[in-house]
C-alpha cells in the first residue's frame, strides 16, 4: 500500500492550499478534518489524488513511518485536544508540526510535553497567506531541532525564495522560538499596515486626492527603500472598482484583530522593550471599531483647519513613510533580540531578516539592509544605530517632522507615524526626564532612586523643609 509522505489536519484556506502545493511538488499527501467534514468532502472531490481519512485512526495509518503531521487548526485548546489524541497513535521519532498562530508559551509547553513521549514537536510560524501557501511561503520553525531535520526536505520544496535565491525558511530556535518570531512578524505587520493607512488618510483627507491620484503616488513610491509587498497590494487595492465606484469607498472604516498583535505588545511589556508604533497600531484598530462613537464625536467637534501645500508635503510623506517603516522593523527586531537573551534561543537575526525577504506579508526592500546589518553584528541591540540607518535618518528626519506638524495642523490623526518619530527622538536622546520620575516615585512611595555621582539606592525626606 502506498503511504503518504506527510499528513495535514485542517482543510481551511491555509491547510488546503499547503496540501495542494505539496502535492504539486511530488509529495504524497494525506488529509483529515474532523472539525469540518464538509471541507474534507469538498477536498476529496477536487483532489482525488490526496489520501483522505474520515477519522484520526485511519489518517495515521495512511502515513509513512516516521510519521509527519502538519496541524493547520485554530490556536488554543483545539491544538491541545488534537495533540492528546494524536500522541496516542504516534510514537518514537514521529513529528507533529503546529502551523497555526499559536502563542509561543503554548508551543514551549507542548514541545516539552511531547519530548517526554519521544515525539518531535515543531511549532512553525507560516507567513504568506493563501497565495504564499500555494506558491511559496516563509516558514519559521522552532521546537525540536531533530523534528525540523526530519521535515525540512519537504518544506524546503514549497518555501518562497529571495531575489538572490535564498530559501525563506530556516531553523529559528528551541521551545517556542518559531511562534515567537511569527508573533513579532505579525506585530510588525500591524505597524506597517497602520502607517500605510495613515499615509492614505493624509493624501485623501488633507490633500483631497482621489483614489486614482493616490494610486499614482503609491505606484511611484514602490521602489527603493519603501518598496514592499504591503505597499504593492495597497496600490492594487486603490485601482479596484465596482462599476465606477472604488471598492475602498464601499468598505466600512473599521478593523478587527486576531490576537497576535496584542500578544506582541504583551510580550514587549513582559520583557521591558519599547514597541510604541506596534502598540499604537493595535490601539488604532480599537478606535476604528467604535465607529458609532466616532460619528457622534465628529458632530460635536466642528473644527476648521488650514490648507497644506501639495508639493512640499508629498515629499515629506515619502520620507516619513520610509523612516516610520525603519522604526517599526527596529522595534520588532529589538524585541526579538531581548527575547533571545531572556529565553536562551540564540536567534540569528540576520537569518530571520533574510527569510522575511520573500513569501511573507512584511517582505520589503528594507529587510536587505537589516539582513546585512545583523550579519555584520548579530549582537546589535537596535538596527537604527547601524551606519546605513543612521545616515538615512540624519538626512530625512526634517521631512518626517514637517509631515507630523502638517498633519497636526489639519487635524488628520497619524498616531503610528507620530509614535515612530517619538520613539526615534527618545532613542537618540542622551538625556530623558526620568530623574523627575524617579523622584516622584520616591516622594509618594519611598521607592528610592539612583544617583549619577555614586552607586546605590537612596531615599530623600521630600516633605522635610
Describe this structure in words.
- The chain is α/β, with parallel strands linked by helices.
- The protein has three domains: 170 residues, NAD(P)-binding Rossmann-like Domain (Rossmann fold), CATH 3.40.50.720; 246 residues, N-(1-d-carboxylethyl)-l-norvaline Dehydrogenase, domain 2 (Orthogonal Bundle), CATH 1.10.1040.10; 33 residues, Single alpha-helices involved in coiled-coils or other helix-helix interfaces (Up-down Bundle).
- It is 56% helix and 8% strand.
- The protein has 19 helices and nine strands.
- Strand 4, helix 4 and strand 5 form a beta-alpha-beta unit.
- Helix 5 packs antiparallel against helix 8 and helix 14 packs across helix 17.
- The longest helix has 34 residues.
- The chain is globular, with a radius of gyration of 25 Å.
- The chain starts with 5 loop residues before the first strand and ends in a 20-residue tail after the last helix.
- The relative contact order is 0.09.
- The mean pLDDT is 94.
Notable features of this structure?
465 residues; alpha/beta; Rossmann fold; N-(1-d-carboxylethyl)-l-norvaline Dehydrogenase, domain 2; Single alpha-helices involved in coiled-coils or other helix-helix interfaces; 7-stranded mixed sheet; 19 helices
Give a short overview:
GO terms for molecular function: NADP binding; phosphogluconate dehydrogenase (decarboxylating) activity. With 465 residues, the chain is of the alpha/beta class. The protein has helices spanning 13-24, 37-46, 56-61, 77-89, 104-115, 129-135, 145-155, 177-206, 211-221, 229-239, 260-271, 276-289, 291-300, 310-343, 349-355, 366-376, 387-410, 415-427, 434-445, and strands at 6-9, 29-32, 51-53, 68-71, 95-98, 120-127, 138-143, 241-242, 245-246.
